[in-house]
Amino acid sequence: MPDRLRKGSGRRPGGWNPSPSAAATLEPRRPYLADPVAPTPTVTDAARKAASDLGSFFGTLSVFDRWAAGATAGLLLTLALPWRWTRQDEEIIGLVAAWPVLLLGAAALALVYLRARKADAREDRLLRLAQLGASGGAAIFTGLFLAWTTQSHALRAVGRSIAIVESRPELGAYAGLLCAVAALFAALPALTEQ
User: Fold this and answer.
1) Which residues are 52's β-sheet partners?
2) Is the pLDDT of residue 16 over 60?
3) How far is CA 79 from CA 95, 110, 174, 179, in A?
4) DSSP conformation letters of the chain
């Protein structure tokens, strides 16, 4: 080989005829050995992970807090059911008819969560009282809702009286009252826990 070809021409490494030292510094391209692309999580995978996280959080709660959280979640789910029937509007769902229950129930669930985050003793006592207040408020409002929605108009004619129903509570209101009372009774023993 002639001398002029043995000497490097001063070209950059990686040209058509790289020097041996430059060829050693270049990383070979091997696309078939590249790391595989991570699969994108699907909606089902995300839902499974969220359910797993919720289950593990629920497992860390005390027995009474589990009852309170479950009953309050049930109360919030009943808001999707019809709570009131009226002559003009037919059935009205609980979210529209009893929206304060949504606020009180969400507050009670948030307080259970905050207490589970291991607050100190003084904060824990205040959070327990606030949870009891929110659960009690939801139970009282739901009980008063049943009385408020029961409206009828009595007509008397020819010695007979006929009651015409103007408004009445529906199944959702009764189920909501049951869940609200269960959440209240679950919040009561939490006051005596240490």
Assistant:
1) none
2) no
3) 5, 18, 11, 11
4) --HHHHS--SPPTTSSS--HHHHHHSPPP-GGGSPPPPPPPPHHHHHHHHHHHHHHHHHHS-HHHHHHHHHHHHHHHHTTSEEEEETTTEEEEHHHH-HHHHHHHHHHHHHHHHHHTT--HHHHHHHHHHHHHHHHHHHHHHHHHHHHH-EEEEEEETTEEEEEEEEEE-HHHHHHHHHHHHHHHHHTGGGT--
Residue 179 confidence (pLDDT): 92
For residues 115 and 88, give the distance between their C-alpha atoms in angstroms, rounded to a whole number: 44
Q: What is the pTM of this model?
A: 0.65
CB contact at 8 A, 187 and 132? yes
Mean pLDDT of 47-68: 84
For residues 177-192, b (16+ Cβ closer than 10 Å) or e, as one string? bbbbbbbbebbeebee
Cα within 13 Å of Cα(121), Cβ side: 3
End-to-end CA, the chain = 91
What are the structure tokens assigned to 62, written together? 């005390």
